[in-house]
Amino acid sequence: MQNKLSFHQSSVSLEIIGLPDYSNDENKDQISIISQWKLTIIDKPLIEGKVEHLGPIMNAFYIYSNLLIKNEIPLFESKLIDIKADNLHIHNIVLKSSKPNVKPLILKIGNSLLSDTINCFDQLNESPKVRIKKPDVPNNFPKKLRYGLIKKDNFLNFFIPPFIAICSLILFSSSFIIFYSPLENIEKKELINPE
């Protein structure tokens, strides 16, 4: 009998099917030998595969979401899966089959479905009942152009002009304080309006 474990988050569920490794004295509810997995996203075709596909797909989702968080161009391409942003809210996923003459599965998902999928992968990684090789998410992504805001190189260029403007304003106003004499104004008023 194979074990089945499910991980759910709102509109996404991940099912892991496999057996315990009795040679390591695991209990009967454990899964160490994964035979199949199924990812169900609401209103989308079922995604399933072998254990050798699960790690790279999880890796792709983690790297892609990390690029989004870092505000870099979100694009991930590999032999098995491509993920790229259509815009800030829609993500295109192309799942390529390892079998010949099978057309790739193309999905469009929004931010909430992307987040739910990653949450299911997180639940799988944290589950004590499943032993899976953790995906290696690299920390050193290639530097790419950013979507908006400021590049790190231009950080100083963003703050230097306002700083110079404030310094100029302070210098200009302090010159008025030095050359302005309120006694002269009182004398002028007395000459114009003598009492």
Protein architecture, described:
- The chain is α+β, with helices and mostly antiparallel strands and 195 residues long.
- It has two domains: 3-126, Transcriptional Co-activator pc4, Chain A, CATH 2.30.31.10; 155-192.
- It has four helices and eight strands, in the order E-E-E-E-H-E-E-E-E-H-H-H.
- It has helices at residues 51-69, 111-126, 155-179, 182-192; strands at residues 3-9, 12-19, 33-41, 47-49, 75-77, 81-85, 90-95, 105-110.
- Strands 1-2-3-4 form a four-stranded antiparallel β-sheet.
- A hairpin with a 4-residue loop joins strand 6 and strand 7.
- Helix 1 crosses helix 2 (111-126).
- The longest helix has 25 residues, at 155-179.
- The protein is elongated and about 95 Å long.
- Residues 139-153 have low confidence and may be disordered.
Summary of the model, kept short:
This protein has four helices and eight strands, in the order ββββαββββααα.
CATH superfamily of the largest domain: Transcriptional Coactivator Pc4, Chain A
> What strand line-up does the widest sheet have?
1-2-3-4
Put simply, the count of helices is 4
Uncertain segments are 139-153
Largest pleated sheet = 4 strands, antiparallel
Listing every helix as H and every strand as E from the N terminus to the C terminus, the arrangement reads EEEEHEEEEHHH
Task: Tell me what the CATH architecture of the largest domain is.
Answer: Roll
Structural class: alpha+beta
In the CATH scheme, the class of the largest domain would be: Mainly Beta
Q: If you consult CATH, what is the topology of the largest domain?
A: Transcriptional Co-activator pc4, Chain A
Strand tally is 8
